[in-house]
Amino acid sequence: MKYQFIALLQLTLLLSTIPALSADNYKLGEDSRPHEGVPQGTVTKYHWTSKVFPGTERDYWVYVPAQYSPEKPACYMVFQDGGSYVNTNGDYRVPVVFDNLIHKKEMPVTVGIFINPGEIPAGESGKPASKNRSFEYDTPSDQYARFLLEEIIPEVSKKVNLATNAESHAICGASSGGICAFTAAWERPTTFSKVISHVGSFTNIRGGYVYPSLIRKTSPKPIRVFLQDGANDLDNAHGNWPLANQEMAAALKFAKYDYKFVFGDGAHNGKHGGAILPESLRWLWRDYAGQ
């Protein structure tokens, strides 16, 4: 009885040191807030009708840093669900974070390309509009990478002088946008060398659960990967998101990728990913030769 009491006490003390799994109380830091004296980039909104995804339309935004000069090609970073990432009052506030980190020279001069998923407009016969997000993001194929490289990147290049080497390109997304970011880099590693996935959907929505196995059985590709997830992420018929992200991290470790996995107590949202975005970007762009 004495030893059982001691064991129970030890367990109680141990549990008391572990944050409650339902906390999810991540807060934005100073790098996610505007500061006086920090030059602000410009954000311009555009609309696009796709041929790679026939019948779809979407909005996209382009952030150009104040430090950009047309004489020097700029890095670029693509964001899926662009409206969420470009929103300066949301969880990620990417333009503000870019302003601060570029000003402090903690990341290179980088153009942000924020792309919403496609929608198929309502038809003349009264057919309602439909969203194409899951097909574009969750399908493990090269179609989305082709959409970027054949349509969006060439269009942005008409407006901004973009660097053409893979080291200067990154891609980021959350949930299905997270697996989409990884897929684009996996399919085109000589174009996208850097990936950030927030609460990525590496589950069986459209077959994306295959990646841990593919990573283990394929020669390592020249991509750097940052994963973020939380213990209270989704668990449904498609799979268990926390387990899927842990399997991704284990596979990347096994295959000796340059990767980082941050696992917290968050749910399926942008709180944790947004709170650590500045540090994630520092890690992603560390040792960039053109900085």
From TrEMBL:
The keyword Signal applies. The keyword Signal applies. Keywords: Signal. It comes from the Bacteria. Residues 1-22 form the signal peptide. It holds the Pfam family Esterase. Gene3D superfamilies: alpha/beta hydrolase. This is Putative esterase. It comes from Pedosphaera parvula (strain Ellin514). The lineage of its organism: Bacteria, Pseudomonadati, Verrucomicrobiota, Pedosphaerae, Pedosphaerales.
